[in-house]
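Quick log. Single chain, no ligands specified.
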Amino acid sequence: MKLRNQTSNDKDDTAILTPDTLNKENRIIPISTEQLIQVQQNDNYAKNILNNIKHYKHYIINNNLLLRRTNPPVPYLPQGDLRKTILNIYHDTAANDIDSYVKSCILCAQFNPRRQKTPGTLKPIQPPDGVWQLVSMDFHGPITPTTQRGNKYIISLTDVLSKFVITKAVRDNTTHTAVRFLIEDII
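-> predicted structure:
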């Protein structure tokens, strides 16, 4: 059980648990503090910690309630049916709760980028009826290291239907280079 709206004393690392901080609105689990104290007193492991608290540096006692020494302190919940019930209740709906919280967060909406790409306006290209009716061309690079002739790009032309590829190493990725490649090497 984790409690919200707690105030802490920085000097002794314990939380001040008042009835106001334990009201039903602030509680995460559906049992009262008195019920939790009773469950702890019936548990052998918790009884051992309560009786030998000086040997357990990770635990503190506040108003007869055994707490794990964290910031804020968290009540110790013994193994058993109560723990299983709480885990089932809060973990079955955790994904929906988180999703709802994030969707309702104004700062999240303002500053978190969208993780999905927006739908594009491209239309699918119909496949050609024969080879060399539709080709695609692209530059790849700059590629390092540069060749001895100063080439740092690769231009490639691909037939869309047959997937036949023609490539050539070139010095730059300009329109002039692409036209020269088409005229001299393809046509």
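The helical segments are 33-42, 44-51, 81-92, 94-104, 106-111, 175-186.
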